[in-house]
Amino acid sequence: MLAQPIARIENLRVEFQTRDGAVTGVEDISFDVNPGETVCIVGESGSGKSVTSLSLMRLVEFGGGQVAAGRLLFDREADGSVDLAQTDQKQMRHIRGNEIGMIFQEPMTALNPVFTVGRQLTEGVRLHLGLGREAARDRALELLREVRIPEPERRLRQYPHELSGGMRQRVVIAMALACRPRLLIADEPTTALDVTIQAEILALIDRLKRETGTAVVFITHDMAVVAQMADRVVVMYRGQKVEEGPVAEIFESPRHDYTKALLAAVPRLGEMRGKPAPEPMRLVGQETQAAPVAGSDAVLLEVEGLTTRFPVTGGFLRRTIANVHAVEDVSFILNKGRTLSLVGESGCGKSSAGRSILRLIEPMAGRIALDGVDIMALQGPKLRQARADMQMVFQDPFASLNPQMCLADQVAEPMRNFNVPADERRNRVALLFDRVGLPQSFLRRYPHELSGGQRQRVAIARALALNPKLIVADEAVSALDVSVQAQVLNLMMELQAELGLSYLFISHDMAVVERVSHDVAVMYLGRIVEKGPRAAVFENPQHPYTQALMKAVPIADPRQRKLEKDLHFKPIPSPIHSVDYAPGRSEYAEIDPGHFVLTSESGY
Fold first, then answer.
1. How many Cα atoms sit within 13 Å of 546 on the Cβ side?
2. Do 469 and 390 contact (CB within 8 A), yes or no?
3. What residues form the membrane-spanning segments (predicted)?
4. Furthest CA-CA distance within the chain
5. pTM, entire model
6. 588-592 and 576-578: which strand pairing?
7. From residue 314, how far is each of 77, 320, 323, 484 by CA, in Å?
8. Coil, strand or helix: which one is 581?
9. What tens digit of pLDDT does each residue of 408-427 get?
10. What are the Cα distances from residue 73, in Å, to 12, 15, 101?
11. What is the distance between the alpha carbons of residues 353 and 360, in angstroms, rounded to a whole number?
12. Interacting residues of 231 by C-beta distance below 8 A, sequence separation 6+
């Protein structure tokens, strides 16, 4: 006899009221979730994935939506099956957290910044389970150990801003699991996390599911994560379910055109094996594939001994009592028309290195030469003039664009700052919009009127406005849907081939790095631990940290799932050292021509 589904969604329809009338967010969605099963809901932003999960929690009403039709049946075990769509909010307060747990996408907004981690963890168990203060604290400690947070007693006293992104996400998972819910909804829980922390959190959710029999609804746009986690997959597109089936069937014989396009856009680790140069992906509906990006042997950027530290102040007089060693003795060369990728976990110093090269952060020591010009020796107007040759594309385009300026003015602003005549500015802005694949009708629009992928295209157009030689792309595609990410990566490679651009590509996504890179440098604790041609680093990783990083990457193939016993990550030591600490030089051994591995001060 088959077990009764824990949740059954039948013909769900959700509407949002706007000034122009009702807008349908989800139309006629139906699927079941069985005990101990993981159902992955996949699709692009705006496809209705999160709306479906928020409807199940009846939280969609707090965002202006309402369940217009359909049934949301939930098996409460003791009280039998209830229709959550008809349940009053008082009853829902008891079900939320207690019987249905939810892990939200952005842990910093899911946690309250003014309460300690301990206060937030004990709140749910005291409310739902009626535990006293001491019992609730013991339960909170037990939860933190379950999600493998180091020093749990200390963490209980800390505030969310004192924890890293990965630790905050573990706290949110611990909160969702506090009352041992029968159903766990995970809404993009690993999108912004590093590959190693993502692997640990996926393994953690999977282990807890097996141990407790909890059913999981996992919402994501990352097909590699789907392959790792799912038992069944529901594919959504524009508010409707277009395909559903077992995970192996969806990956090996997709039926719907949208599912096929989604899978074609996924960069797969190992795909570039045997290919000497990066090449754009062939997307569904694209007739021809662009040629590989060869690059040149001429040196554009030389970085030697780059060191950046941030002071830690304390005491009554706010004296410097220690330093954060963000970037320590980093050296590399980037050639014209080529891409060098800096990879590593959060806090390894990737972004600090990129910003130090542009002098957005002032380095403590080192030499930076761009096309023969010593950037470290420049000051004032000369440094400003040199910045025309080096631009940056940031991770979050919404934060890097001005919400009060129309797009045409934002792309024209760098040219206005460098006194380009008005007529030339207008023509160049129109040309740049064509170049990044945006229609002219977008010129008068504002950032909030665009999707994430379109905003990132505007950020790229703005970076290109002054014909730079170097673009630092800091996690430029990590927040984008897989199909939009593929389009933006193809655009960047086409522009590189056309304009001879050089990219310093900062990322934690190893599959993307393999697709776009000529050369790769792996960073750990502020140092480059391994560097060399892309093929050498990916196909013959030598440093233990690089090997651990490769092992953690989820592969978009359900037959190649990672096992928890294979994931052995050492906790990252603190990069904070006393003022008198004197780190040694970085020394490398050359394994193959151009392939270097750190032999000193590795710490891993």
1. 26
2. yes
3. none
4. 78
5. 0.81
6. unpaired
7. 54, 7, 11, 45
8. coil
9. 999 999 999 998 999 999 99
10. 11, 19, 16
11. 10
12. 37, 38, 39, 246, 247
Tens-digit pLDDT profile for residues 186-196: 988 876 677 77
According to DSSP, residue 282 is labeled -
- Nearest Cα residue to 499 out of 318, 296, 222, 285: 296
Higher pLDDT, 120 or 479: 120
pLDDT band of 462, cuts 50, 70, 90:
very high
Q: Cα 66–69–75 angle (5° rounding)?
A: 90
The letter for the amino acid at 432 is L
Buried b (16+ CB within 10 A) or exposed e, 250-272: bbeebeeebbebbbbbbbbbeeb
501 near 337, Cβ under 8 Å?
yes
Cα-to-chain-centroid distance, residue 523:
17
Question: What is the Cα–Cα distance from 329 to 348, expressed in whole angstroms?
Answer: 13
Overall average pLDDT of the 268-274 stretch: 83
Q: Residue 311: phi, psi to the nearest 5?
A: -75, 145
Run of H or E including 275: none
Nearest alpha-carbon partner for 538 in 566, 517, 557, 562:
517
Q: How far is Cα of residue 201 from the mean position of the Cα atoms in its chain?
A: 14
DSSP string of 68-118? Answer: EEEEEEEE-SSS-EEEGGGS-HHHHHHHBTTTEEEE-S-HHHHS-TTS-HH
CA 203 to chain centre: 18
Q: Which of 222, 207, 334, 224 is nearest to 268 (CA)?
A: 224
pLDDT tens track for 80-91: 788 888 888 888
Rounded Cα distance, 109 and 188, in Å: 14
310 and 323 Cβ atoms separated by less than 8 Å? yes
Decide if 71 contacts 83 (C-beta within 8 A). yes
What residues contact residue 439 under an 8 Å CB cut-off, 6+ apart? 433
Nearest to 198 by CA among 190, 207, 208: 190
pLDDT at 1: 36
Q: Rounded mean pLDDT of the chain?
A: 86
pLDDT tens-digit series, residues 22-61 = 888 888 899 999 988 999 999 887 788 888 888 988 888 8
Q: Could you tell me if 340 and 505 are in contact, meaning their C-beta atoms sit under 8 angstroms apart? A: yes
pLDDT band at 2 (very low <50, low <70, confident <90, very high): low
Q: How far apart are the first and last CA of the chain?
A: 52
The answer to whether the beta carbons of residues 456 and 475 sit under 8 Å apart is no
Q: How many CB atoms within 10 Å of residue 221?
A: 22
For residue 369, give both structure tokens: 């030469």
State how beta strands 390-393 and 588-592 pair: unpaired
DSSP string of 1-67, one letter each residue: -PPPPSEEEEEEEEEEEETTEEEEEEEEEEEEE-TT-EEEEE--TTSSHHHHHHHHTT-GGGGTEEE
